[in-house]
Amino acid sequence: MEDGKLTVRAVERALDILLCFTQSEQLSLTEISERVALHKSTVHRLLASLEAKGFIIRDPASERYRLGFSIWELSANLTHSDDPAILLLPEMERLRDLLGETVSLYIRDGLERVRVQAVQSNQAIRRVAPLGARLPLYVGASSKILVAFADPGDRDALLRHPDWPGFAANDAYLQQLEEVRTLGYATSVEEREPGAAAVSAPIFDRRQRLAAALAVSGPSNRLTVELMKEHAPSLMEAARRMGKMLK
Fold first, then answer.
1. Pick from 149, 126, 123, 153: which is nearest to 137 by CA?
2. Domain 2-73 maps to which CATH number in 1.10.10.10, 3.40.1190.10, 3.30.420.40, 3.40.50.920?
3. pLDDT of res. 183
4. Could you give the dihedral angle defined by the CA atoms of residues 186, 192, 193 and 197, in that order, rounded to the nearest 10 degrees?
5. What is the pLDDT of residue 53?
6. N or C: which end of the chain has fewer CB within 10 A?
């Protein structure tokens, strides 16, 4: 039994190491050790095992690590026909070309939202949106969408969660959610990150279930509140088209 526990723990640690690469292409042993809060010797042994199976590649010159080809071999077998991140990509690219800003797709996971797809703006100064990034669910335009349009029972449970911050459950916040539901979109200006702004709309599948939040983001000095209001109809129309593509 004890051996089984140790084996599971080792698997969890190895997966934690792989997840470090959701926001960074290359990492050093020290950086990985700090991110997973494990001793360097432990991380080194796990990296050696992952490298042997092709999940990690080590650059001998820089002593830095990156994801290996086994990751891509696994991803090639995803069911693309049902994966919103793949299915909606062409529409996201069309929206990016129309509005000129970065377009992202978010889903809810517990008390966080996860960026599952992104199309970067072509402008020199742009909002960079790394895939796999986990962000708090209580701040930001897409977070408002995922909470405001959630099933009422799920939303109530979320607001009562012991880890949910108090400021995001008061009357002002609840009123803001109501306004989002009325407008059909949400905006944010420097709520989570200085100099960044975003506008987001819900994507409902053909059964009218909330599937994801579609967001357009960029520098706040370019993506102003007035411009986000102008973009909102195009964003909501794109979200409507995307929803028709989902089962």
1. 149
2. 1.10.10.10
3. 97
4. 0
5. 92
6. N
What per-residue confidence (pLDDT) applies to 169?
Answer: 76
For tokens 């967001």, name the residue. 215
Sketch the domain layout of the chain as residue ranges.
2-73, 80-244
In the prediction, which pLDDT does 61 show? Answer: 86
Q: Which DSSP category does 74 fall into? A: H
List pLDDT tens digits, range 140-181. 999 999 999 999 999 999 888 999 988 877 888 999 999 999
Question: Counting Cβ atoms within 10 Å, is residue 55 exposed (0-12), middle (13-18) or buried (19+)?
Answer: buried
CATH number 3.30.450.40 is the correct assignment for the domain at 80-244: yes
Structural tokens at position 167:
């400021």
State residue 81's pLDDT score.
52
Measured over the CA atoms of residue 192, residue 196, residue 202 and residue 203, the dihedral's sign is negative
Question: pLDDT per residue over 18-53, tens digit each?
Answer: 999 877 789 999 999 999 999 999 999 999 999 999
Q: Return d(Cα 101, Cα 125) in angstroms, integer.
A: 10
pLDDT at site 234? 96
Is the pLDDT at 243 greater than 50? The verdict is yes
% of the chain residues with pLDDT over 70: 91
Tokens, residue 65:
């690590």
d(C-alpha 154, C-alpha 237), whole Å:
26
